[in-house]
Automatic annotation (TrEMBL):
Gene3D superfamilies: HUPs. It comes from Paenibacillus konkukensis. Signal peptide: none annotated. It holds the Pfam family CTP_transf_like. SUPFAM superfamilies: Nucleotidylyl transferase. Residues 5-176 form the Cytidyltransferase-like domain. Its EC number is 2.7.7.18. This is Probable nicotinate-nucleotide adenylyltransferase. InterPro entries: Cyt_trans-like (IPR004821), NadD/NMNAT (IPR005248), Rossmann-like_a/b/a_fold (IPR014729). It catalyses: nicotinate beta-D-ribonucleotide + ATP + H(+) = deamido-NAD(+) + diphosphate. One of its GO terms (molecular function) is nicotinate-nucleotide adenylyltransferase activity. Pathway: Cofactor biosynthesis; NAD(+) biosynthesis; deamido-NAD(+) from nicotinate D-ribonucleotide: step 1/1.
């Protein structure tokens, strides 16, 4: 099987997350996309909703797609083990016979190339990636400018995907709309919209 690991805070999960996962699965012929909510212990993530709410919304959002799956590995690991390198090691042990890819945006590729990720060398040297275009980022140039990335670019390690549409509506925008009494209803699944309203999430 070909499996994509799609990590994000999913705070909340949006229609763009789902569209992106579906597009990547189709373009790269993935058999499964695993939604991986990031640990609240990570220094670069500070979720606004509790883990239980983020997990509940992902379950609602992916319920009708057999290719989508939830894994809460990062929510349960010990402090110090919440880094993507260890996460990919976990999935390689879980799926030893399968072809695994970490799905990320081009902005994260730039950060890894600049040495901003813990265990970045080991992560890049031992894994494969599907990298989604982000506005204003030249993915080929980002790889070429970084010794870490270019020295591991064997033609298969970085699968670059231009989604074709600039759908960049963020979870931050949706949270701000909820906080200010806005109406972001059609930016996320109806089930998640109702869940947020019922539980009073993201209110200022």
């Amino acid at each position: 099987m070909k499996i994509g690991i799609y990590g994000s805070s999913f705070d909340p999960v949006t229609n763009v997350h789902l569209w992106t996962a579906s597009t990547i699965a189709h373009r790269k012929r993935l058999d499964k996309v695993i939604f991986l909510p990031s640990s609240s212990r990570r220094l670069d993530k500070s979720p606004h909703a509790a883990d239980e709410h983020r997990v509940a919304m992902i379950k609602l959002a992916i319920a009708d797609n057999p290719k989508f799956e939830l894994d809460c590995y990062e929510l349960n690991v010990l402090a110090g083990m919440q880094y993507t390198y260890y996460t990919m090691e976990y999935f390689k042990q879980r799926y030893p016979a399968d072809d695994l890819y970490f799905i990320m945006g081009a902005d994260l590729l730039v950060d890894i190339g600049a040495g901003k990720w813990s265990h970045g060398e080991e992560l890049v040297s031992k894994n494969k990636f599907i990298v989604m275009a982000r506005n204003g980022i030249d993915m080929l140039a980002a790889i070429a400018k970084s010794p870490l990335l270019r020295n591991h670019d064997d033609g298969d390690r970085f699968q670059l995907v231009d989604k074709g549409l600039a759908m960049e509506i963020s979870s931050t925008y949706i949270r701000e709309e909820f906080a200010r009494g806005g109406e972001p209803r059609y930016l996320l699944p109806d089930s998640c919209y109702r869940y947020i309203a019922e539980h009073g999430l993201y209110r200022s």
